[in-house]
Design goal:
The structure is a single chain. The protein is an alpha/beta fold. Helices cover 49% and strands 15% of the residues. The protein is built from nine helices and eleven strands. Strands 2-3-1-4-5-6 form a six-stranded mixed beta sheet, sandwiched between helices. A three-stranded antiparallel beta sheet has the order 7-8-9, with no helix packed on it. It starts with 35 loop residues before the first helix and ends with a helix. The N terminus is likely disordered.
Length: 425
């Protein structure tokens, strides 16, 4: 296809198209742009890759053990108990290297998930953590001076949801949590400790899980089938979901060899034996075949939905009729709206403050009046009591004077009587 543009317009103007699919030209000599794929590969290898895995499941269900088995490493995870008051998110970052490929692996654990009696909203810390990572990436993306090439991307690329092997049906807590997460990350449900139920129970359990998730509208990650090189195997693996896995950190001797597995009195469960569990299938699909697709879906679907919602909240949107809205105009409009809201809030606060002051002033005056009335009453009562006491004092003094006069009169009479007796003698 031949396209010519003109500087007189901001839009591309197509003047001539040769053929429905354009025209392929044969080069006369080697140019060198066939090395672009190699350049891209070398650049990616030098920068390294990020992979972030969220493990959701009860304490002790085998999340850390499975991570050790998947990456054939000892991540030395902290042991958690069932006494957590709530759900916490634990994040650990490891640097791995295989050959000349570097991988920055972030393992995120849901500590205390499902251990509380009240499990309502147990998924809130998980949703908040995922949104926080989206927000961190968005803020870096919106910076004037940004560096997304070397930025440590912590967005969750896959959520491994560990299901308890009940053998019957999926729990309501699992359904609610996966429903809350399915629009924010790629969910791959796995049945943990699948060696605890029989083969027939496991097959029925898988069928029941998929049926209940479909009936409740839970969307899980499906391996892509648009690439012919992996379409057949991915389609086959999609039909085998959820994967039934077994994890172990122990090496067990089987015959003349040593394998990673779990030893029981009746035999050995080999985690890398596809006849025993789906661990190998999970590793193939998660790491060796579809790791890049998980990263791509996270960026193009889940993060894009979050980004679009956030930009709409900020008032930034594309108007299909008039083209993209100017960021400066949007800023000025949002600033004017914000100042108007602040003015309204200020007036409401001032009015509320004046009303409170007026009410308080009225209450103070009322209290003062009540205190004045009470004071006047007390003073009147005190005066009356004082007058009464003065009157009583006067009466007592008069009575005392009368007593003294009586005593004096008695003494006088006694003296006269005594003198009269002496004279007769």
């Amino acid at each position: 296809m031949v396209v010519r543009t003109t500087n007189q317009s901001t839009h591309v103007k197509v003047e001539r198209v040769l053929g429905s699919d354009g025209r392929t030209l044969t080069l006369q000599d080697h140019v060198g742009f066939d090395s672009l794929p190699d350049q891209l590969v070398n650049k990616c290898v030098n920068l390294g890759f990020d992979m972030n895995i969220l493990c959701v499941g009860e304490t002790g269900i085998g999340k850390s053990t499975l991570m050790d088995c998947l990456f054939k490493a000892d991540f030395d995870d902290e042991i958690h108990t069932h006494t957590q008051p709530g759900v916490e998110v634990s994040q650990r970052v490891y640097g791995l290297k295989e050959g000349n490929v570097k991988l920055k692996l972030t393992l995120v654990d849901s500590v205390g998930y499902g251990d509380q009696i009240n499990k309502e909203n147990s998924y809130d810390p998980l949703v908040a953590y995922i949104d926080e990572q989206f927000e961190t990436y968005l803020q870096e993306e919106l910076k004037i001076k940004r560096n997304l090439v070397t930025f440590h991307d912590t967005r969750i690329h896959v959520c491994l949801y560990f299901l308890v092997p009940t053998g019957h049906s999926i729990r309501s807590l699992d359904l609610v949590t996966m429903k809350a997460l399915d629009k924010k990350c790629n969910i791959i449900p796995i049945i943990a400790k699948s060696d605890t139920i029989s083969k027939s129970e496991l097959d029925n359990f898988k069928a029941n899980i998929m049926e209940e998730m479909q009936r409740n509208g839970v969307e899980i990650y499906t391996f892509p089938t648009d690439d012919d090189t992996v379409a057949e195997v991915n389609k086959e693996m999609n039909d085998m979901m959820p994967f039934a896995v077994v994890g172990s950190r122990e090496d067990v001797k089987v015959g003349e060899g040593v394998v990673r597995g779990r030893e029981y009195p009746w035999g050995v469960v080999e985690i890398e034996n596809e006849a025993h569990c789906d661990f190998v299938k999970l590793r193939e699909m998660l790491i060796r075949t579809n790791m890049e697709d998980l990263r791509e879906v996270t960026h193009k679907r889940h993060y894009e939905m979050y980004r679009r919602g956030k930009l709409k909240q900020m008032g930034i949107a594309d108007d299909g009729a008039h083209g993209p809205v100017s960021l400066q105009e949007t800023y000025e409009q949002k600033r004017a709206e914000h100042l108007k809201d602040l003015k309204t809030i200020e007036n409401e606060m001032r009015s509320s403050y004046l009303q409170k002051v007026s009410r308080k002033d009225a209450e103070v005056k009322k209290k003062l009046n009540e205190m004045q009335v009470k004071y006047d009453g007390l003073r009147k009562a005190a005066n009356e009591e004082r007058d009464k006491l003065e009157e009583e004092k006067k009466k007592v003094n008069e009575e005392l004077a009368e007593v003294k006069r009586t005593i004096a009169e008695v003494q006088r009479l006694s003296a006269e009587q005594a003198n009269g007796k002496k004279g007769r003698k």
